[in-house]
Amino acid sequence: MPIWTKPITLAQLNALNANTAVAHLGIEFTEVGDDFLRARVPVDHRTKQPYGLLHGGVSVVLAETLGSVGAACSCPEGHRAVGLDINANHLRATTSGWVTGTARPVHIGRTTQVWQIDMVNDAGEPTCVSRITMAILAPR
Fold this sequence. Notes:
Elements: H1 10-16, H2 21-24, E1 28-32, E2 37-42, H3 56-74, E3 80-90, E4 98-108, E5 112-120, E6 126-137
Antiparallel strand pairs: 1-2, 2-4, 3-6, 4-5, 5-6
InterPro entries: HotDog_dom_sf, PAAI_dom, Thioestr_dom
Domain Thioesterase: 51-125
GO molecular function, one term: 1,4-dihydroxy-2-naphthoyl-CoA thioesterase activity
């Protein structure tokens, strides 16, 4: 059974991020499941740090994007989801290709949500794991 409280499509998710930092970095949503979201980021001139590796902050942007969108799409109508805390453990460097993140809820509560985002390279090897806590704000 889907956790989403409103219908979502890949086209909607990708259009939502037009003209934002997400679009500038080349992040694109690739899959919506019943209880997960998936998106990827290219490892290219926009996303590398000076040593030629994917910038760790870009992994965090991917994680925050997935967790925030997941929370927003699974909270009650009229409510807003805003970030409270995020952390990331960088496990393996990536120098080319794509890094794909998959976000799944750990906890969906009335006032908070916690999402885990697992990121892998093109070979399916873990590159980063992140967890974000979201506050769910009632309508004013």
